[in-house]
Amino acid sequence: MDTRERLVATMGELMWERGYADTSPRDVRERAGVGQGSQYHHFRSKRDLALAALERNVADLLPATSDLDGAGDPMARIEAYLLRPRDALKGCKVGRMTQDPQVREDPVLLAPVAEAFAQVHDRWVSVLREAIAAGVLRQDLDPGRLAHTLMAVIQGGYVLAIAQQDPGPFRDARDGVLELLRASATGADDPRPNTDERQ
């Protein structure tokens, strides 16, 4: 990894851990093992470095949604994406930036974050439309609204887990939305044996 890539990767990690406001150029140099001259050779300002790091974090995020693409059963792809391993206590590299006031108030820094979520939303809409067209999910569901709901559950699950320093709320939110999706599946109201011993 060359010096520029090391700076970008380090800035991305520090922004994920601390946010943009609480990450200084010195912090980046020390962790990356890069001198001040080298840093300013590649990036004129902290903002320039942050933009490159945000773009890198977005590039890391989007391949993870590839579970939603491809062939085969759309519900299986949805479940695979929701159940993929995540570090709930670290949260989302990209979603974390929406909580940073200096990123929110800077249209240039916010742009790659907004674009990333727009692309993820498009992928969700596409797979949900497939599921509806295949008769797997009910025809009366709105794929755009449902896509935002699923994205909000994931991002909100991270917030709850981090607030409580417990991955349990994230897992509960994820498993809860999976239960709702399965309940919305065609044929979901077929009678099933009651296995709840409390009833």
Automatic annotation (TrEMBL):
The keyword Transcription regulation applies. Residues 1-61 form the HTH tetR-type domain. Residues 24-43 bind DNA. Keywords: DNA-binding, Transcription, Transcription regulation. InterPro entries: Homeodomain-like_sf (IPR009057), HTH_TetR (IPR001647), Tet_transcr_reg_TetR-rel_C_sf (IPR036271), TetR_C (IPR011075). Pfam families: TetR_C_13, TetR_N. PANTHER family: HTH-TYPE TRANSCRIPTIONAL REGULATOR LMRA, TRANSCRIPTIONAL REGULATORY PROTEIN. This is TetR/AcrR family transcriptional regulator. It comes from Georgenia deserti.
